[in-house]
Automatic annotation (TrEMBL):
Keywords: DNA-binding, Transcription, Transcription regulation. One of its GO terms (molecular function) is transcription cis-regulatory region binding. Gene3D superfamilies: Tetracycline Repressor, domain 2. Pfam families: TetR_C_22 (PF17928), TetR_N (PF00440). Residues 30-90 form the HTH tetR-type domain. Residues 53-72 bind DNA. This is Putative TetR-family transcriptional regulator. The keyword DNA-binding applies. It comes from the Bacteria.
Length: 226
């Protein structure tokens, strides 16, 4: 056992103050940040981004405004961090939905395995749509979403090309744009309902897309045609 000598005598090593464990401190900070982001998501969904305030977010999180300001200087910073995390989660969701294996399925099955993860993400994170639809969403969030939208558009075009590779590029782009617009419109209906009604609208959205795409790309598995 080592010892240290001070003005008041001998102090054992166990009595010497040590700095907090950096990893533990970092973990606590990350938990607090997530707590604040979850609270912000609830407030944004309930009141809209424009009407939300840092005081309301702090109350929702059960902390003082001073605690909130230790992590975020303002509401915009909270929205940017929340948007960054949700955008990354959505990118991961795209990776699950748009795979070569899924693109080789018959149209009905393909719509199920592609749309279900996207719908599930948005139902679990309704604040994502709230943020991107707000007129005064921070520019960084809008830019991230624009990039995400462009990436999704490209994936839909590639998916259509898997079924009908002979389709002209401009025609493929129009079909992808229309299909995506139909999905977004249907998604708003899905999110505005719950329970059996939500499930019914999910079915209607899939039926709508099936009816639109079937005459263009067919209903058979892509591998069965080439």
């Amino acid at each position: 056992m080592s010892i240290a000598h001070g003005k008041l005598g001998i102090v054992t090593e166990s009595q010497v103050a040590r700095p907090a464990n950096p990893r533990r401190r970092q973990a606590r900070g990350e938990r607090r940040i997530q707590q604040l982001l979850d609270a912000a998501a609830s407030v944004f969904c309930r009141t809209g981004y424009t009407s939300a305030s840092t005081n309301a977010i702090a109350r929702e999180a059960g902390v003082s405004p001073g605690t909130l300001y230790q992590f975020f200087p303002n509401k915009e910073a909270i929205a940017v961090e929340l948007g960054d995390r949700l955008t990354q989660q959505m990118r991961d969701t795209h990776g699950v939905a748009f795979t070569d294996k899924n693109a080789a399925l018959p149209l009905g099955e393909m719509l199920d395995v592609v749309l279900d993860p996207l719908i599930e993400f948005n139902c679990a994170n309704p604040v994502f749509l709230t943020l991107i639809c707000s007129s005064d969403t921070p520019g960084a969030v809008a830019e991230e979403h624009a990039a995400l939208h462009a990436a999704l558009q490209t994936r839909v075009e590639e998916l259509i090309g898997t079924y009908v590779p002979e389709l002209a590029p401009e025609r493929r782009t129009r079909i992808a744009t229309m299909a995506f617009a139909l999905f977004k419109a249907g998604l708003e209906l899905i999110l505005s309902h719950e329970g059996e009604d939500r499930e019914a609208y999910i079915t209607e959205v899939k039926n709508c897309l099936y009816g639109y795409l079937a005459p263009v790309i067919g209903t058979e598995a892509a591998s069965a045609r080439h």
